[in-house]
Amino acid sequence: MRTLTYFVATSVDGFIGAPDGDGEFFNRMVDREYARWLAAEYPETIPTHVHAQLGLGADTPARHFDTVIMGRGTYDVGLKDGVTSPYGHLEQYVVSRSLAGSPDPAVQLISGDVVARVRELKQRPGLGIWLCGGADLAAQLVDEIDAFVVKTYPVLLGTGMPMSRAGFALRGLELTRVESFPGGQTVSAYARRR
Description:
The chain is α/β, with parallel strands linked by helices. It has 4 helices and 10 strands, in the order ββαβαββαβαββββ. The protein has a single domain, classed as 3-Layer(aba) Sandwich (Dihydrofolate Reductase, subunit A), CATH 3.40.430. The strands form 2 sheets. It has an 8-stranded mixed β-sheet. Strands 2-8 form a two-stranded antiparallel sheet. β9 (173-180) and β10 form a beta hairpin. The model has no long low-confidence stretch (mean pLDDT 94). It comes from Streptomyces antimicrobicus.
């Protein structure tokens, strides 16, 4: 069975974006060594329109994910710049109750029961499913998330959009990997204890 992994960038104090959800400032904290590592280890998480800048070609194989699911706010970040298919190299889903139709034929909308849809996607063959964001979608799917890959950037925000808006509960995780970089970034991987 496929797994759902929340692969997300965060500040040291656990925020994935400003209070309005904007997390573009994290991109300015990606130095060359860290970018090379991301492109080698998680090439499928690099937006399609950025592939050439990082030396990724159409033949670059996905290592972890072949499907991405994101909330409307996460999708809107690229859409504002005219990017209608941010991860064209993956099967793309956007969760939205307000979009009447998909802005791109390569992007499928989920307007109904997202938990049921994720459970159905998990039953299909293939690589893992990447939960791209954001906080509300992570809360809806909290019991379906099998793993977390948390990219922590060396910045303290004080307030902002949290990793998840799920209610308080002790949800056990097992640390499976930690990578650290000279620029102060760390990547921590956790498996869900069931």
